Structure formats: structure tokens, C-alpha cells
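cron nightly-structures :: item 1 of 1
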Amino acid sequence: MIHFQMTQKDIERDLTALGKKDKDLGRALDEVGFPEERKVDAGFKTFMGIVVGQQLSVKAASTIRGRLNAATAPELTPNTYLTLSEQELRTIGLSRQKIRYGDGLARAVLGGKFRPDELPQMEDDEVLKTITVLLGFGRWSAEMYLMFSLGRPDIWPADDLAVQEAVKRLKGLKERPKQKEMDKIAKKWSPYRSSAALFLWHYYANTPNI
């Protein structure tokens, strides 16, 4: 198993090193401090949480996750999810599209086509490919799982709007950078781009939009 490398100690060590290489990041780090670590359990429940959270506010997603967990108590698993009818899932707050994604995920796990317990042994690119073949799971979803459930240190969510806005503020750009420019800027942050991304979310939340 590849070691989880996104503990608080890892993050602070990585960002301290990056701050010495990048004066803008170093200045911002002095301004807002270190972000807190984020760790989410690996497995089916987390993947369902990703489905629930798509295109919803944090508060709304948290409410629906709570209802889904209660409806599938004592544990949200592929089997307990599939025992719920479409009407029950709609009442919980899932759209028909998300019900379809959840159904596909549960059946893929039960049928052995998707094995979440094998992901920790895979390299980053293989994890990305394995997750993104699932209906409803794009690159961003896979990147979040890699960072916060598997603790991979060099994941770069270049398409994340908050990360783009934070880079714009950090570098004093006129517009949010697109993926090509994001990748170019982040090149010097490798192999600690996960810590850089976590810091940028923190920086975005704690600085004004000028």
C-alpha cells in the first residue's frame, strides 16, 4: 500500500519548502497560515458522498448525506443503497441523475467491476483511469479521492474554480488562468502540488476578491 502523505505534518513541511521556492506563496503563507489537513475515509461511502455533493452547496450536500446515512443505517454499502426505492432516494434529496450514478456505482462494486479496496495499491494515473470510467465521475472527483482518501502528494486540480481564483489572487493576474497556465505555474510546486492546492483553497477562503 502506498503511504498516506497528506497529514498535517506533511502539509506544513511541504508548504514551508514551497514557500522558500516561490516568494508569492511564501508571502501568502505568512498572511493566512497553514491550512488544516483533510482526510476522508476510503470506500463506497465516500464515493456516494462525492455523487451527493455534485453541484450542491456544502450545507445542502451535508444534509442529504445525513439523510442517506440514516436511511441505510447502520452502514451505507452497495447493498443497503440498492434496497432503497427511487421514491425513497428522491425523498432523501437525490436527483434522478444522481440516483442513476449511485445505482451504477453500487452495481459496479457488487459485480467486481470496481474495487475501491484496490485503489490504494495503484499509481495515481491508474486510479484516475479507474474512477473516471464510472458513470458520473469525472477527473475532479478522482482528484479529490486521490488527495483526501488516498493522501497522494502531487495531485493538481487545475480545473477547480476556487483554485484558479486563488492562483489569480496569489500571482496578481487579471483573469483566472486556464489549465495550460495553471499547469505551468504549478510546475515549480511539484512534487507537493496537493499541499499547494489545499493551501490555495485556504487562501481563497481567507482573502478578499479584489
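cron nightly-structures :: done
Residues 37 and 56 are 23 Å apart (CA to CA).
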